[in-house]
Amino acid sequence: MVQYPPGLDSAFGALADPTRRGILERLGKSDAGISELADAFDMTLTGIKKHVGVLEAAGLVTTEKVGRVRQCSLGPRRLDDETAWIATYRRLLDGRLNRLEDFLERTRETQ
User: Fold this and answer.
1) How many of the other CB atoms lie within 10 Å of CB of 34?
2) 45, 99: one domain
3) Whether residue 97 is found in the same domain as residue 48
4) pLDDT per residue over 26-79, tens digit each?
């Protein structure tokens, strides 16, 4: 059985949704409250809280209660394991495409 780094599935799952990717982009510019995010994405507070919860569970976002506002910021996770997995997969695909190209060149030469 293939072993992947812990958290790989939760990070890719969190990043699979366009709203959550948008939240990360927004928080990359500056921290924001739940209400600000809900307004920015035209969502209910409940909906945005669910998205933020998924991102928080994956370590991509942190939240902190500041007075009456739940403030969101980028989390400690830097996606190093995910980047390494993508790089490995890209090398595998590049290798297969190179072998296909070599095969096609050889078959063209024999015709």
Assistant:
1) 17
2) no
3) no
4) 999 999 999 999 999 999 999 999 999 999 999 999 999 999 999 999 998 888
Q: Are residues 42 and 94 in the same domain?
A: no
Residues sharing a CB contact under 8 Å with residue 37, sequence separation 6 or more, in sequence order:
23, 26, 43, 48, 52, 72
Q: Rounded CA gap, 75 and 20, in Å?
A: 13
| Length in residues, the chain | 111
- 101 and 68 share one domain: no
pLDDT at 1 over 80: no
Asked if 8 and 36 sit in the same domain, the reply is: yes
State the sign of the Cα–Cα–Cα–Cα dihedral 59, 55, 82, 28.
negative
Do 16 and 55 lie in one domain? The reply is yes
Which range of residues forms the domain containing residue 1? 1-76
Outline where 8-79 has alpha helix (H): 8-15, 18-29, 34-40, 45-57
